[in-house]
Specification:
Elements (H helix, E strand, L loop, with lengths): L6 H6 L4 H13 L8 E5 L5 H9 L4 E6 L2 H11 L3 E5 L13 E5 L8 H10 L6 E7 L5 H11 L11 H10 L2 E10 L2 E2 L3 H12 L1 H4 L7 H11 L4 E2 L2 E9 L1
Parallel strand pairs: 1-2, 1-4, 2-3, 4-5
Antiparallel strand pairs: 5-9, 6-9, 7-8
């Protein structure tokens, strides 16, 4: 099941996600959608990217979907009646009417089966609809995972970080025409230890903190931060551009 988030804390942070979202919107613009296109934001979070989309294209008909009620509540606060809101899990059939495009920022790596994910998206996309997305890809947060292994003594992570070949094959199997799939390193440097710990706790380590008593959260995050190879989060973005056949 999707995890819940501290959406207010998430929304208050200065995130590299904002830049990733702008890149997704730039690429979506190249598909020349109609001004009133119906667009699904799959894993919409707090609605930052949807708000940016409406600033560019005020007449879009946005459908904001997320597995976290807290995230959707924050998105409703931001956008009000300017969008439709759907609480759903992307690993299940998606309960929305057909859409003319799908955008997504920093969400798909939380979905454990990308083959099922792409099939579910394809099922609600009209032929010719673009899929333009960003998420963590192969090698993403490798330094964080090394730090976690040093702290916990355990390997493995809760994310699905796919490579380009896997992704292209899964898209083709789900009836997409693949235009481009690429990996792009984009390290987030954060020399201030307090800010880095807040970022790790809010954005990166939530699924690990969910398993710990609350009074252990602060010390756990500090241990992970101290175990990092450098004061940074070593992101690798998987960027997808495809069209529904």
């Amino acid at each position: 099941m999707p995890r819940e988030w501290n959406a207010r804390s998430y929304d208050a942070l200065s995130l590299p996600h904002t830049k990733w979202g702008a890149g997704v919107l730039d690429r979506l613009d190249s598909h020349r959608l109609s001004e009133t296109a119906r667009v699904l934001d799959a894993g919409c979070g707090t609605g930052r990217d949807a708000a940016a989309a409406l600033a560019r294209w005020p007449d879009l008909r946005l459908v904001l979907l997320d597995g976290s009620e807290h995230m959707l509540d924050q998105a409703r606060t931001k956008l009000g009646g300017a969008a439709e809101y759907v609480h759903a899990n992307l690993i299940q059939p998606i309960p929305v009417e057909p859409v003319e495009a799908v955008m997504s920022v920093a969400a798909f790596h939380w979905v454990p089966d990308h083959g099922v994910l792409f099939a579910n998206l394809a099922a609600v996309m009209v032929p010719g609809a673009p899929l333009v997305t960003d998420c963590g890809g192969a090698g993403n947060v490798a330094g964080v995972n090394q730090a976690l292994q040093r702290v916990t003594g355990q390997s493995g992570d809760p994310w699905q970080f796919a490579d380009t070949q896997q992704t292209a094959e899964r898209l083709e199997a789900a009836e997409f025409e693949v235009l481009d799939v690429r990996l792009r390193p984009d390290t987030f440097q954060c020399p201030d230890p307090d800010v880095l710990e807040e970022y790790l706790a809010t954005v990166v380590l939530g699924s690990h903190l969910d398993r710990l008593p609350e009074d252990e959260h602060e010390s756990f995050v500090r241990e992970v931060r101290q175990a990092l190879p450098a004061p940074e989060v070593d992101y690798v973005r998987l960027e997808i551009d495809a069209v529904r056949r």
